[in-house]
Backbone:
């Protein structure tokens, strides 16, 4: 709670993995998973997985925040150092996003024509596209965005 | 274009006054944002669902010849659309994730002392939001009108109707008549679920945000060293907005993946309602209340001013009511005169931290009691009511005591030695 470090996010990721393991990923369930059939989850499993998902997102964004924003803020303007590698990574990710978008649309067309709904594949492609856009934003913030750390009076007139 | 708008609306003033608000940077603030993004996802996916859902139980014939309620048939239709099943699953998972994230967000606020003066009002608004989120999720549970959802919702109907004096009226307002059975029940639940409760949630979320912007965040403790007496942070636009976009996309990725791989409520597997009642449990956020109902003996009932005080009322309303009342009164126990500006370290507040741990263990034990029948069928000693009472009362008390002694001994001496000024990383 003292600074924006990665100790609590680390434990959040650890708990998240443990909860996922508790809820679903035991040997029996993996066998069911490989068949990719809709599987009835118990209320307990749904609860554990909901907490696991929150802790996973929280842990991941905790690490991303520490990487992008640092552990402590320092007032003033901070300029990024120009570099070629993030630009190359950005171009590769944009190409990947375009390909993923194409696959996703193909998948929807296939579902509409055949009546088959491979939900795990649809969800997976959509998730991958969202992750790629998140990665592009992270690259932009880390390597191209001019950062500013401001201070504000406690008694400002925002919003009144 | 910008100049044209600026000359008419003075939007540059808006930027300087509002969009440059300083947002302190700390990972724990993301729990509130995850809750918000879950709600936004619920609204967006909910709009798609309303376009295809029919809130009625009139008999409808499926292409395979079966006659089922129209609500059930329309959800089957949604599942057959390309990406439709995933969108419905994302909606379902987002409801669970929103409740879990709101709970963890409040836990963070509690453990870091952020509910204290001047933020008492926002603590109360947050409590209301958590309660409303649970009620909204509950009203949506019966909408697919499958065998499982109808049976599970009936448990909630029973608890609502058990409230002395006002129970039947509350049940009438919520369900539009008897549930299941009344033809008005699904249209009533649908109206509450897609209109009245989300509108109330939007109003409360807006109030929560406006109060937060006015009162500012509680800051991480290091800010006191770097900018004493000031709010230290990054401007809302563009920096915080970029971070929020990353959180939203990360949220969308996780929930789409989970929603695609694990269909949370496969109604085809459950089937339409039948006279045979399946063995069901209420959703996990009600399981602790269900657990208390399981351990309260059926003979615990009496009459008060002509009304029947039933075990359902004691376990389903009185016990949760006591916990809610304690949460409401919590910020008013602390009668400090100065404002709470910085996040407190849980280790420096052993009593609050250990009581919180005790309450958490109580929730876990009560949830465990919800599996009483399963334990009995498996021949486990946990199926014994006396064992469950010990787990419910003794284990939380022991947890509170042991954690208090441990925190006091482990951190008390350290805090005194360091003068409570400079905790190490990870504190």
Residues:
């Amino acid at each position: 709670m003292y600074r924006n470090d990665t100790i609590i996010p680390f434990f959040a990721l650890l708990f998240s993995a443990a909860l996922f393991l508790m809820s679903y990923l035991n040997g029996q369930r993996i066998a069911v998973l490989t068949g990719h059939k809709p599987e009835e989850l118990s209320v307990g499993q749904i609860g554990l997985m909901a907490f696991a998902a929150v802790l996973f997102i929280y842990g991941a964004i905790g690490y991303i925040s520490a990487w992008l924003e640092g552990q402590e803020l320092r007032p003033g303007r901070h300029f990024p150092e120009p570099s070629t590698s993030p630009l190359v990574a950005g171009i590769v990710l944009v190409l990947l996003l375009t390909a993923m978008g194409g696959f996703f649309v193909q998948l929807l067309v296939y579902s509409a024509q055949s009546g088959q709904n491979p939900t795990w594949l649809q969800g997976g492609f959509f998730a991958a596209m969202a992750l790629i856009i998140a990665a592009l934003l992270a690259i932009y913030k880390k390597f191209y965005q001019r950062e500013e750390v401001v201070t504000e009076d406690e008694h400002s007139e925002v919003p009144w | 274009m910008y100049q044209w708008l600026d000359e008419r609306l003075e939007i540059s003033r808006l930027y300087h006054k509002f969009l440059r608000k300083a947002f302190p940077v700390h990972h724990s603030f993301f729990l509130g944002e995850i809750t918000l993004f879950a709600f936004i996802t619920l609204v967006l996916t909910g709009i798609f669902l309303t376009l295809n859902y029919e809130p009625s139980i009139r008999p409808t014939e499926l292409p395979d010849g079966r006659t089922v309620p129209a609500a059930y048939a329309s959800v089957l239709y949604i599942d057959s659309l390309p990406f439709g099943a995933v969108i419905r699953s994302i909606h379902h998972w987002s409801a669970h994730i929103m409740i879990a994230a709101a709970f963890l967000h409040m836990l963070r606020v509690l453990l870091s002392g952020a509910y204290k003066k001047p933020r008492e009002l926002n603590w109360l608004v947050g409590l209301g939001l958590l309660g409303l989120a649970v009620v909204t999720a509950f009203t949506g549970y019966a909408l697919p009108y499958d065998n499982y959802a109808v049976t599970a919702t009936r448990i909630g109907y029973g608890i609502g109707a058990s409230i002395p004096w006002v129970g039947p009226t509350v049940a009438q307002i919520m369900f539009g008549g008897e549930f299941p059975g009344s033809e008005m029940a699904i249209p009533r639940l649908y109206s509450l679920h897609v209109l009245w409760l989300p509108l109330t949630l939007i109003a409360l979320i807006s109030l929560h945000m406006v109060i937060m912007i006015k009162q500012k965040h509680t800051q991480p403790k290091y800010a006191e060293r770097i900018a004493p007496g000031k709010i230290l942070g990054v401007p809302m636009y563009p920096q915080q907005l970029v971070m929020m976009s990353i959180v939203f996309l990360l949220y969308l990725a996780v929930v789409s993946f989970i929603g695609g791989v694990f269909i949370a409520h496969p109604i085809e597997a459950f089937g339409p309602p039948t006279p045979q009642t399946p063995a069901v449990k209420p959703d996990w956020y009600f399981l602790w209340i269900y657990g208390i109902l399981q351990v309260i003996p059926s003979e615990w009932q009496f009459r008060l001013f002509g009304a029947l005080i039933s075990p359902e009322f004691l376990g389903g309303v009185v016990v949760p009511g006591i916990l809610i009342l304690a949460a409401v009164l919590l910020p008013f126990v602390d009668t400090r005169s100065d404002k709470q500006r910085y996040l407190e370290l849980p280790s420096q507040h052993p009593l609050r931290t250990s009581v919180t741990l005790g309450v958490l263990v109580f929730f876990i034990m009560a949830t465990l009691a919800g599996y009483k029948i399963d334990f009995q069928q498996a021949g486990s000693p946990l199926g014994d009511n006396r064992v469950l009472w010990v787990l419910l009362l003794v284990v939380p008390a022991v947890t509170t005591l042991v954690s208090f002694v441990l925190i006091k001994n482990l951190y008390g001496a350290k805090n005194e030695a360091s003068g409570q000024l400079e905790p190490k990383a990870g504190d």
About this structure: Chain B has a mean pLDDT of 90. Chain B touches chain A through 92 residues (CB under 8 Å). Residues 27 and 220 of chain B are 10 Å apart (CA to CA). The beta strands of chain B are 22-23, 59-61, 67-69, 230-235, 302-304, 307-309.
